[in-house]
Design goal:
The protein is α+β, with helices and mostly antiparallel strands and about 300 residues long. Helix content is about 30%, strand content about 25%. The chain has an eight-stranded mixed beta sheet with strand order 2-3-1-9-10-11-8-12, with helices on both faces. A three-stranded antiparallel beta sheet has the order 4-5-6, with no helix packed on it. A hairpin with a 2-residue loop joins β10 and β11. α1 packs across α3. The chain is globular, with a radius of gyration of 21 Å.
Amino acid sequence: DEVLGLVERRYNGLKAIRKQFGDKRLGYSHFFGYELIDDRQLGALVRLSEINEFLYPVFQDDVFSLVQKPAAMGFSDQVKAVVKNKFEGELDPGRYMNSLWELAHRAGIRILTGVSVKELLREEGKVLAEGADQVHLEFKAKKIALCTNAFTKKLWTAPDLQPGRGLILLSKPLDFDIPWNGSFHLDRGYVYFRQLAGRLLLGGGRNIDLEGECSMDFSVNPKIKLHLEGLAREVIFPNRKMEWEMEWTGIMAFGKIKSPIIQQVDDKTAVAVRLGGMGVAIGWQVGKELSLVLSKM
């Protein structure tokens, strides 16, 4: 039930985002999603039809199928099979954020950046913050929504929430044609890649050092960087030369279960956190559910 509910949140959220803003404005393209399968995961393929049946109530169709000619994608022989998800697409998160900001502005919502929230005085409905040059600011509200995801423990003792750092690498423009399109995952979803304007965008790999990546520090873990570079060289583009141009990290929030925490904390405060690395996909639905919680307070 938990898994099915999470899938439904993702699917409904993405449909709502596309309906609200339109595919062109979001830079949306529907090139499908793919999972690369190696020797360790081959046994899972016998359950494809079972999983399709399990997901049918949400999609009213089969979601997953085997790619018939995976060798045409040009991956190394470590890839034994490729599974296709026909419901997955890609949107530009920068365009999505711009669209959200414009929508908020039209609704009369003021967004303040460059301000660090230092403390919540929940019983008083106060937010204590610090701006540039250590200017102290105080905000007072009838209701407060805490949506700081991985950084929430600085303000509220979340019952089951841990930060999870993710590394992204972006290559220089490639001097060869890329024989595939779409969103790709490998190693049980821990690694993600796609092409971006003739470059390789590659990220993840935190399972190589889960304890080390349970961090709110935005630095780069050299062990994971080497791992991702090796996957690009040995699995994704074997026998091809490529160089890297940019790297950055982002902090996600995880817990023992995949579902987000959406709840009332006290008379004046509610939270919506722990998005499990799926903030773009489930953030819209989580926001709607949080608004319902706030409306009943």
